[in-house]
Amino acid sequence: MAGVIRRRARRQRLFRWIVLGVLGVFFLLPLLAMLEFTTRGTGGSFSLETWRLLADWPKLSQTYPDLATGIAASLGQVLLTVGLTLVLLVPTVIWVRLRLPRLRRVVEFLCLLPLTIPAIVLVVGLAPVYAWVTYLLGGSSLTLTFAYTILVLPYAYRSVDAGLSAIDVRTLAEAARSLGAGWTTVIWRVVLPNIRSAVLSAAFLTVALVLGEFTIASLLNRTNLQVAVNLLGKSSATMSVAVSLAALVLAFVLLLLLSLVGGGRRRTSPKETS
Amino acid sequence: MALVTHHPDPVAPAPGVRPLPARRRIRLPGGALLGVVPFFAYVVVFLAIPTLVVAIGAFTGDSGGFTLDNVARLGDSYILTAFGRSILLSAVTALVGAVLGALLGYALVTAKPDGLLRRVVTAASGVLAQFGGVTLAFAFIATIGLSGFVTEFLRDRVGVDIYASGVWLFELPGLLLVYTYFQIPLMVIVFLPALDGIRPQWREAAASLGGSTWQYWRMVAMPLLAPPFLGATLLLFANSFSAYATAAALVSQGSPIVPLQIRGALTSEVVLGQQNLGKAMALGMIVVVAIVMWLYALLQKRSAKWLG
């Protein structure tokens, strides 16, 4: 039996490295090509000019004002969307679990609904709503936050819901209430600290999604990082490829940190301990 | 992260204290309902109303009033062709992405469960699956664009011109390639939980009963993995059917697929009445995605039985 297992492990290792090797080339080639593309100087020489410019914010905003505006807009959208999503979703999900369990299915359905409505379709319907938003709040690109909060609902809901399922919310809340805590205290000081990593992962996913969003911003005639990159691609391809690659690497580092910070203990299933 | 130590019974009454009823039944949870008002109001304004705008607009004529003209015009040859192309693109990339993604997923499952390899690949998959859009279009322009890295290499060193018969990167074949690039990582994310649910003990049990590897796969693993695999394939289909950014950044002339047709309808100031035709196309998209997601939910229920 031990021999069989050892042989199987060897076969699996071989299979693993073949698959990873072949697909690794397919996935890394475009990324390496991007790197090569951005370090091409004149006459085929190697040059870091583009990256130097990208690291030099004042000079960048002089050379490519649209790009600087886009990056600034995206950062603002990220902060506002994370804030709005957490404020709107987390207390609601906790509240529904504690006090209105009958509404849980409804809330879940609403949160997952954006998965079945493509962003391009949502834009078509959002246009009249945004006419009102512009009328009330002006046409700033930061107003995209409202649409983005809807887009990230499914992902944020899933991680917060998973975090809540992992703890015994009811018992915690009842214990706190019986010691005289009000509902606000229960949510803020008892439940939230226990789902910290779930909330963190919801925030991370929101950051990644907002940084990568293009459809809604482009078709509502507002700007963000991706819209600016796309616009820049028509005039200065090298710079737009550099910004794309930088954003991709940033998102990757974010998600890798997330998997190292949270998830380590949460994702072990009870099966493995039994 | 457990900050709470588990007592056997944290709400056990102290001796001599009459316990309060633990869950006071509130007949009228009016006060409790107030807590969900902001969320529901928000979802109504930014999700329900836009959806209704699309649904109602699809049946509204240019001068108001109910009409079936917009929906009837979906039968126009160019729109039908666009829907056909969209469905073909989604089906092909979903199938290819599902098979390759499942292989990659299996390769990961045989590695250490919390090893660095798995974490790096999972994080990279998350980025490439969700982040795609414009970035991927540029990545492929840098790779196999007219002055791309691979294009130049093949032309100068190997003497092969990949664009001898036209620049296919900016047409449907290019979309097929780039879409596959983000479908594989999505498959890895969606399919990993199912692969994790397959326990090594089952394989050992099959082996100890004299079953071969092939028999184990055919009679144990495959029947179990078939529903989640099909479900994941459907999810991939919906994902590429709804994708817009990659295509918009890659294809600037013509509108081969439905999302780009909708872009045309939204941005064309020339033809009046295009707006509501765009809404009809959007409604058509919702219908396709809704059917696919409904099937996906059915399959999820089936595989939830043993994934627990």
UniProtKB/TrEMBL annotation, chain A:
Pfam families: BPD_transp_1
The ABC transmembrane type-1 domain, residue ranges: 71-258
Domain of life according to the entry: Bacteria
GO cellular component terms listed in the entry, alphabetical order: plasma membrane
Keywords: Cell inner membrane, Cell membrane, Membrane, Transmembrane, Transmembrane helix, Transport
Classification via InterPro entries: MetI-like, MetI-like_sf
Protein topology in the membrane: Multi-pass membrane protein
Keyword Cell membrane: yes
Subcellular localization: Cell inner membrane; Cell membrane
Coiled coil: none
Residue spans crossing the bilayer: 14-35, 67-94, 106-126, 132-157, 198-220, 240-261
One GO process term, biological-process aspect: transmembrane transport
Matching CDD domains: TM_PBP2 (cd06261)
Protein family: Belongs to the binding-protein-dependent transport system permease family.
PANTHER family: INNER MEMBRANE ABC TRANSPORTER PERMEASE PROTEIN YDCV (PTHR43357)
Protein name (Swiss-Prot/TrEMBL): Spermidine/putrescine transport system permease protein
From TrEMBL, chain B:
One Pfam entry name: BPD_transp_1
Entry-linked PROSITE patterns: ABC_TM1
Residue ranges of every copy of the ABC transmembrane type-1 domain listed in the record: 83-298
Protein name: Spermidine/putrescine transport system permease protein
Alphabetical list of InterPro entries matching this protein: MetI-like (IPR000515), MetI-like_sf (IPR035906)
Species this chain originates from: Plantactinospora soyae
Membrane-spanning segments: 32-59, 87-109, 121-146, 176-195, 216-238, 280-299
SUPFAM superfamilies: MetI-like (SSF161098)
